[in-house]
Specification:
Number of helices: 6
Pfam family, one: Exo_endo_phos
Domain Endonuclease/exonuclease/phosphatase: 88-293
Low-confidence stretches: 1-17, 26-57
Transmembrane segments: 21-44
Keywords: Membrane, Transmembrane, Transmembrane helix
Protein name: Endonuclease/exonuclease/phosphatase domain-containing protein
Strand content: 25-35%
Order of helices and strands: HEHEHEEEEEHEHEEHE
Radius of gyration: 30 Å
Distance between the termini: 105 Å
Number of strands: 11
């Protein structure tokens, strides 16, 4: 038989051609499906499962010996609850989820949440299980939180402060111990009353609270952080950084406090040994959704054995 005999038959040749055409058609169809699937993947949005979107960059790990402290006004739940003055805004529970997401992404170790109510406390404890929350029995609370792996709670002592029209509120004076070093730091969360058209002339209560803060700091045996919503700007900045009080601010020194840029009402004041630096303000869409103040704040501190 001739070596060309297998290709001499017309029927065999036609069969091979049909098989070749079918194979080519299959390849083209598969390729088109791949292109179509890729196009659909760009056109159809996927569902996020990693929690709330927070528009801040991922922070690098903090250096040994340093911790990150954060503070913000959490905007009490009743404001956005049904019937509240801002009922059209995001509710308190999803707002607290945004807060927890921010604390995670920026690797915060401890801090203060001003103006927190029961649904928000419960949400924080549910969403942020790596953190512990220290609060008081007050309906609207100013709370301290800390990362369990970094700190342990040493003590929490109540101090009486004053809100609108002299209403008494309890603030916790919290002492934490850094697990890695045994060094301790105290935190006092605050929320001074604002003077508003509906509640004018609240200055006397803010002044009284400032005196209470100074007394707590003077009697403390550990370095202190006082943070929260002061409802004052450069005036409280100058008052609490004055030589008689001895606290420092990441915004300005006492010598320059009066002429410094307009301070926010959410501030932090620290014992000098904590050496605050790397002050940051986050004011993106997530912060504007989570709080009516529109910003989250943080600073790096170094826990020290001295005041």
């Amino acid at each position: 038989m001739s070596p060309n005999a297998p290709f001499a038959s017309g029927s065999a040749s036609n069969g091979l051609e049909r098989i070749d055409l079918r194979w080519r058609a299959t390849v083209v169809a598969v390729a088109l499906c791949g292109v179509l699937a890729a196009a659909i993947s760009f056109l159809v949005p996927t569902t996020a499962t990693a929690g709330p979107t927070v528009t801040v960059a991922q922070a690098t790990p903090v250096q040994p010996g340093f911790q990150r402290f954060a503070w913000l006004n959490a905007w009490a739940d009743h404001h956005t609850a049904p019937g509240g003055a801002a009922a059209g805004r995001l509710d308190g529970v999803p707002r607290m989820r945004i807060v927890v997401g921010h604390l995670r992404r920026t690797l915060i170790d401890f801090g203060v949440l001003a103006e927190v109510e029961a649904p928000q406390r419960e949400a924080f404890e549910s969403f942020g299980r790596e953190f512990a929350l220290v609060s008081t029995p007050d309906a609207t609370d100013d709370a301290v939180f800390y990362r369990r792996s970094v700190f342990r709670l040493v003590s929490k002592d109540p101090v009486t402060m004053y809100y609108r029209h002299g209403e008494r509120v309890i603030a916790p004076v919290v002492v934490l111990e850094e697990r890695s070093s045994g060094r301790r730091v105290g935190i006092l969360p605050v929320h001074f009353p604002a003077s508003l058209p509906s509640v004018p002339e609240q200055r006397r209560w803010r002044d009284l609270n400032a005196r209470i803060v100074k007394n707590v700091v003077a009697r403390s045996e550990v370095p202190m952080v006082v943070a929260g919503d002061f409802n004052q700007r450069n005036d409280i900045l100058c008052d609490l950084t004055s030589p008689g009080t001895g606290l420092v601010s990441p915004l300005a020194t006492y010598d320059g406090c009066a002429t410094a840029p307009r301070a926010p009402i959410d501030q932090a004041f620290l014992s000098p040994s904590l050496r605050p630096d790397r002050y940051r303000v986050y004011s993106g869409p997530s912060a504007r959704r989570a709080t009516d103040h529109g910003a989250f704040y943080q600073v790096r501190v170094r826990i020290s054995d001295v005041l």
